């Protein structure tokens, strides 16, 4: 017998499959719901902010630090995915099989987790506008609508990403204090 959470996840995925999911939406989401898309938004904003001199730290600190913390988060999420090995809704609800071994595991959502980590660091450590947090929300919802994840996968990803973001924020403040000499 499945847990209440498992039944709720399955019911949500079934609803999405029957009422929302379709080839056109899937094609759109597969093009825009990628990690590269966040970079395509971050880089122009970073260039604009550097040009206008509105960020507290230069781009050559922002990008590597955010990248390193997000990469550590990604490796942890990958470890969890392999350890838990939960099948994706595309497999369990839609019956599709993907030959890529990395595409079979569902919990937690790396897109939700990585985008949350990066967004929290960019907004709360490096002074990006708060609307950057919406990117993480969009990443998670996109993964639900494309049936790549169950709701608990996305929520778990956001929770893990928040933890790494908070850790990165605390370590980053110390690192930046050291790097700038307390200025």
UniProtKB/TrEMBL annotation:
SMART domains: acidPPc. Keywords: Cell membrane, Hydrolase, Membrane, Transmembrane, Transmembrane helix. InterPro entries: PAP2/HPO, PAP2/HPO_sf. Pfam families: PAP2. GO terms for cellular component: plasma membrane. The keyword Manganese does not apply. The chain crosses the membrane at residues 34-51, 57-78, 120-145, 157-179. It is found in: Cell membrane. Residues 63-169 form the Phosphatidic acid phosphatase type 2/haloperoxidase domain. One of its GO terms (molecular function) is hydrolase activity. The keyword tRNA processing does not apply. It is a multi-pass membrane protein. PANTHER family: DECAPRENYLPHOSPHORYL-5-PHOSPHORIBOSE PHOSPHATASE RV3807C-RELATED (PTHR14969:SF62), SPHINGOSINE-1-PHOSPHATE PHOSPHOHYDROLASE (PTHR14969). This is Phosphatase PAP2 family protein. It comes from Leptospira fluminis.
